[in-house]
Please model this.
Amino acid sequence: MHDWFQTPAGRYLLEWERLRVDAAVVDIFGYHALQLGVPELDGLQANRMPHQWLASEQLPDAALGPVKQPTLLCDFSALPFPASSLDLVLLPHTLEFSSDPHSALREVERVLVPEGRVVICGLNPASLWGLAQKRGHLYRRLGFGSLFLPDGGEFIGYWRLRDWLRLLGFEVEVGDFGCYRPGVASDKWLQRMEWMDKAGARWWPIFGAAYFLVAVKRVRGVRLMGPAWKTVPAGAGKSVSVANRAHDN
Model:
């Protein structure tokens, strides 16, 4: 997606996602955080966990320019981390361009600690951009035209993804839509349509071109223990019987 992120629409999408991701991860605490793919979005920069990794499934092209380089090269459906070892996993368009999104999401569930968070960015097929992509596929089959969005991805619907998360034991904490401007190639026309962001958020909120999710891993029978700030000494508060003392006197 690197080349597409350099287009006006790509920069517009990245900026919207960067604001949402930064606001979400800044208050997620722990020790270990992982981002899978899309180095153009430095999604962990606002997070304060001491151990952070950016993973990729293939070596980056040297011609990509100044993007953050991955620290791990691995298969997203077989992450090199023990079970219940990560506090935060970020998936920016990871699932929709994965060869097996179900396996990748199950792997995320495996490596997350109980109460760990997963943050997901995705493209919404039920949007103006989704319609433009479908029209582009139709035109290509007819022998002309081009695609508006990157090719090779399967765009996963928002409610479909929520069902996947629920089946894996996740609880969605945050769900948001954005990027309501139409799919135009010109930066000039994209700026002219800025008013549609406010109108869309009010009148057709679920039809934004992109969606954003934060979900927490719930595990039955697991209860996080906090510090015992007040320790009651053994025997404190018990009533003292004086019957035997009175009898002895």
User: Anything to note?
Assistant: Strands lie at 32-36, 51-56, 72-73, 86-92, 112-123, 170-178, 210-217. Confidence is low (pLDDT under 50) at residues 228-232, 236-249.
